[in-house]
Protein 1
Amino acid sequence: MEWTMLCYDGTEYTLPTPVAWRLNYGLGTPCDSVWVKTLWSAGQESRLADGTRLRVTEKGETLFFGVIDECETQWSPAGCVAEITGRGLQALLLDNQAEAADYGQATLAEILRRYVTPYGVGLEKAVSLPAVQGFSVASGSSCWKVLYTFARYYAGVTPRFTRAGKLALHPWEDKTPAALDETAPVTRVVRRDQRYGVLSQVTVKDVTGWTRQTEFNEDFRRRGGQCSRVILLPKDTGFQARRYQAKFQLDRSAAERLVIEVTVALPFAAWPGDLVRLTRTGWSGNGTYRVRESRVCLGELGHETTLVLGDPQGVL
């Protein structure tokens, strides 16, 4: 693997071979991130301060491209090391706020022009998403939130970034699920049932408070769940739109309830969005899941990948 730091003045610097590293990939939430620790030469601390981007490649394939958030050099009697942390290019959309705006009709081209392209982010491939009537941007919203609302809420497509830093807005391209069976070098499997953050009911009402619509997560309520939200919408929002908004919030929170984590003693065992089939003897959680996060690292025990799995039909 080759780790290259890109500087603000256009120069590039190849980092020494790392002694440890960690690459985290997600589907928008959380944002892709990187941490790398490498040997360093005392007296060259200022060179790190010039870096703005980090690119990781292997055999011509880009494994990560993103912004550098922090650089640190450490000196001790054992020698000098440098650590770099960063995030994928989604960070540029998360870190920049949008001004309040109301669109009679919002198109994908307009959303990209105002909230994506100015930050140097390009599309992986051309897509066509329907225009949205009466689209509003709340003051203080991040550019990422604007994009997510437009693509996921209205078009049903989960926006995410490729490893090369391109924005993907096309539907899942599901292939044959990767097998995590008895032949795979699985070292750890965790099932986590999360109640915190799962909504039992959502009430959507207009700003006057006279018109409201409430939807329930009956299964979670039956299991004792009590967590509600109230969402304000413009007064001219129709019944079906209010119901869809409430159901969308319920389904999105429900996707967080069951999480499976599988650790494999291999690098890059699967990527976010991939389907995997978990088959372990004596394990009650066998089935097909979608990879929501992939955490790859090199440490004292060698390479390993931890896959965070969820419902393949869940709202992400």
Protein 2
Amino acid sequence: MSEKGRIVKMVSQDQEEFEVEYGVATMSTLIANVLQDVSEETTTVPIPNVNAQVLAKVIEYCRYHYEAKRIDQSEEDIERWNKDFMKVENKTLFNILIAASFLDIADLLDLGCKTVAGMIKDKSVEEIRELFCI
């Protein structure tokens, strides 16, 4: 079966289902590997380590970047979108990083790490401790 009509149902740790286009879902190397030998039109993939709120954000990221690549979006527009996308609470940011690592979405993991690095750049140890509540 071709990729075009395929849907991947991603089920979050809290059992919420997300229907995602095959091309978007396979931006995750983990999911691409799981689906490699599956030919069904719709496939369900449990994502046990990621809650629904964070999975929705990860899917939003993948959808945007899948479409941006497809329509040859400008690098400037993508960078602006990425910056806005990462404007989330620290807890959400770290959960996105964990999800990106688990799902093996290298570009999202890299973006998250760059965001954290920017947050701590030129800060004292005390300021970093305060920022991360440690």
